[in-house]
């Protein structure tokens, strides 16, 4: 991007193509070709403007790194040779868009020898004479949406197989290369610094949208991150109990869930802190209960451990701490069995992270299926066994959501564990979430996130201390 930002090497994408070919080659017919279609710009309803700054489709980005819309990419499985197909614009486009780039320009830009115009795709593929075109088609287990399968005029003249590629490439995306890890570290560090800036910016009288703006400005102005990975969740006071909140009003105690995006790679960090700079006794109680859950997972997670078991561990830790704080009573294991954890944390512990904020590969064939017990674990976006090179979020939370509290108090099985008068004190409290982006290594977990986490660290940072700690 610019001075001080990270240069993403073209080898990152070339390596991903080689990994894909190595995965596909053993069981595919000779002369098979992988075909991926990039994203297209989306018009703003019926206007001639686009909805947003274009961001490339993630599978295509993973393999080719091309950031322009309207592209295709092909990989010869037998040789690994790559072909990039770019839009062929009329000369008049140069009036509005500047000098038009040639295939040779794109070849130099992306390190791909074979670059053609997209209107030549049928002719080029015909010369290559593939035995089969392997296209991408599968259902995203988070959204329920089906990936866009490559299509072009003349594809009906080729044999097409869309049953193989999705599971293979989605699984490869779960495990990050060293080059990908460096980009992930950069975007997480940029997002961390932006969060730290917001923590000091947020003051009584300032609005949530102003805090969001401060985050966005830092990520783009300093980190070169033109995109964010999802709509910022900038929630103050009772809004912090709304899991996917937009923005409005003015801050009290604040939950900010925000992450930058750099060349497609996502960060996803949540910080919760008191705008006053000092935790009240109740804020400290709930915050430290969530932090205990976060740290319990951080200490236990390692290769070979079930992510679903980590979800249960976080819930058990949270309920134990709430019991110590006087909100709950009774046996914690019985609380988990009854489903009480989902009353206070209705979302999953965390998710895979990469080119999508809720990255792919969570529930693939031959991987652990989605669990249904205890209540709430079905919201977990993956139940995979942890392995080296996975990057995930650890994001336990505790929220006081009226509709869920009312349900629990009215349910004899759940209400036996509640202390109603203490629960009443926390009505309108909002919520706390602590979200870190972590890398699974041979030794365990490496936290990529660099923000104040303990009560003391947060209070010191907001008081203007500890600048040297994060340099």
TrEMBL record:
It comes from the Eukaryota. PROSITE patterns: PROLINE_PEPTIDASE (PS00491). Its EC number is 3.4.13.9. The keyword Metal-binding applies. Its cofactor is Mn(2+). It catalyses: Xaa-L-Pro dipeptide + H2O = an L-alpha-amino acid + L-proline. InterPro entries: Aminopep_P_N, Creatin/AminoP/Spt16_N, Creatinase/aminopeptidase-like, Pept_M24, Peptidase_M24B_aminopep-P_CS, X-Pro_dipept-like. It is an enzyme of class 3 (hydrolase). Keywords: Dipeptidase, Hydrolase, Manganese, Metal-binding, Metalloprotease, Protease. Pfam families: AMP_N, Peptidase_M24. Residues 8-144 form the Aminopeptidase P N-terminal domain. One of its GO terms (biological process) is proteolysis. One of its GO terms (molecular function) is manganese ion binding. Belongs to the peptidase M24B family. Eukaryotic-type prolidase subfamily. Homodimer. This is Xaa-Pro dipeptidase. It comes from Asbolus verrucosus (Desert ironclad beetle).
């Amino acid at each position: 991007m610019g001075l001080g930002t990270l240069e993403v090497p073209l080898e990152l994408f070339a390596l991903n193509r080689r990994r894909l070919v190595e995965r596909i080659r053993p069981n595919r017919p000779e002369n098979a070709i992988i075909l991926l279609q990039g994203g297209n710009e989306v018009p703003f309803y019926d206007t001639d403007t686009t909805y947003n700054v274009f961001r490339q489709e993630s599978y295509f980005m993973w393999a080719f790194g091309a950031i322009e819309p309207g592209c295709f990419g092909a990989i010869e499985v037998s040789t690994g040779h790559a072909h990039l197909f770019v839009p062929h614009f009329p000369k008049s486009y140069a009036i509005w868009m500047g000098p038009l780039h040639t295939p040779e320009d794109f070849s130099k830009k992306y390190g791909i020898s074979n670059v053609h115009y997209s209107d030549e795709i049928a002719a080029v593929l015909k010369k290559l004479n593939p035995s089969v075109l392997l296209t991408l088609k599968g259902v995203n287990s988070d959204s329920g949406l089906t990936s866009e399968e490559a299509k072009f005029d003349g594809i009906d003249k080729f044999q097409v197989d869309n049953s193989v590629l999705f599971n293979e490439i989605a699984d490869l995306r779960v495990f990050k290369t060293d080059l990908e890890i460096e980009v992930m570290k950069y975007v997480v560090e940029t997002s961390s610094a932006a969060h730290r800036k917001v923590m000091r910016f947020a003051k009584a009288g300032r609005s949530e949208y102003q805090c969001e703006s401060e985050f966005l400005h830092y990520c783009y102005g300093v980190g070169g991150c033109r995109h964010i990975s999802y709509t910022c969740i900038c929630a103050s006071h009772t809004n912090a109990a709304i899991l996917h909140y937009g923005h409005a009003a003015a801050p009290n105690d604040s939950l900010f869930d925000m992450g930058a995006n750099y060349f497609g790679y996502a960060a996803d960090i949540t910080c919760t802190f008191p705008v006053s700079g000092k935790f009240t006794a109740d804020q400290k109680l709930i915050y430290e209960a969530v932090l205990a859950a976060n740290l319990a997972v951080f200490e236990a997670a390692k290769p070979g451990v079930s992510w679903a078991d980590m979800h249960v561990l976080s819930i058990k830790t949270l309920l134990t701490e709430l019991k110590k704080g006087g909100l709950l009573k009774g046996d914690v294991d019985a609380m988990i069995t009854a489903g009480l954890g989902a009353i206070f944390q209705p979302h999953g512990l965390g998710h895979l992270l990469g080119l999508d904020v809720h990255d792919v590969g969570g529930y693939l064939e031959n991987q652990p299926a989605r669990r249904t017990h205890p209540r709430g674990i079905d919201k977990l976006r993956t139940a995979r066994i942890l392995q080296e090179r996975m990057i995930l979020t650890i994001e336990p939370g505790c929220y006081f959501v009226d509709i869920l509290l009312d349900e629990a108090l009215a349910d004899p099985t759940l209400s036996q564990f509640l202390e109603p008068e203490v629960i009443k004190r926390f009505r309108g409290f909002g919520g706390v979430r602590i979200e870190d982006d972590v890398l699974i290594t041979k030794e365990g977990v490496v936290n990529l996130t660099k923000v104040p986490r303990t009560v003391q660290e947060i209070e010191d940072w907001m008081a203007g201390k500890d600048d040297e700690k994060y340099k």
